[in-house]
Amino acid sequence: MKQQWKIIFVIILMILVVTFAIQNTVAVPINYFVGTVEVPLVLVILLCLLLGVIIGLVGSLTALQASRQANRTLEGELRAAKADHMDKIQEKDRQLAELRDKLRNEAQATDHTAVYQPSTEL
Q1: What's the maximum distance between 2 C-alpha atoms anywhere in the chain?
Q2: What's the rounded Cα separation, in Å, for the pair 48 and 20?
Q3: What pLDDT shows up at residue 68?
Q4: What is the DSSP string of 41-70?
Q5: Which SS3 state, helix, strand or coil, does residue 93 take?
Q6: Which of these, 13, 9, 30, 10, lies nearest to 21 by C-alpha position?
Q7: Taking 70 as the threshold, does the pLDDT of residue 20 lie above it?
Q8: Which helix (H) or strand (E) segment is 12 a member of?
Q9: Residue 109 has pLDDT above 80, yes or no
Q10: How far apart are CA 90 and CA 83, in angstroms?
Q11: Which of 30, 32, 31, 62 is nearest to 43 (CA)?
């Protein structure tokens, strides 16, 4: 839905720019360091718009590339953290198994003790 609004906004903006440019067909002089050229105002407007779009895209692509690089770095850190976490879980599982074995051995060692059982006869 958000993408549709962007497309609608761009279409409306383009219609406004083209309408404005068509109404301005007067030839205007463009002064260079070495000379002057007369160009229709519509061409100047559209070229400036195109130049602005290109500059905006270059800036966006630079920011996008930086975001992708940061994303790759963070994904690597996440993989390392997951591997470390799994190693710690395996270590804790090993310790738990050792403690259970130790507890079982101690229970077996104390199994031969006499236990008092009161008689139910009176």
Answers
A1: 129
A2: 13
A3: 94
A4: HHHHHHHHHHHHHHHHHHHHHHHHHHHHHH
A5: helix
A6: 13
A7: yes
A8: helix 2-22
A9: no
A10: 11
A11: 30
Q: Specify whether the CB–CB gap between 30 and 46 falls below 8 A.
A: no
Count CA atoms closer than 13 A to 77's CA, side-chain side: 6
pLDDT above 60: residue 95: yes
Instruction: Give CA–CA dist 50/105, Å, rounded.
Output: 81
Segments of 1-122 assigned E as strands: 27-31, 36-40
> Has residue 8 got a pLDDT over 60?
yes
Torsion of CA 79, 84, 89, 94, to 10 degrees: 140
The reply to whether the predicted model has a pTM over 0.90 is no
Any idea which residue has 């718009």 for tokens? 49
Q: Give the residue, 122 or 31, on which the prediction is more confident.
A: 31
* Distance of alpha carbon 57 from alpha carbon 51, whole angstroms: 10
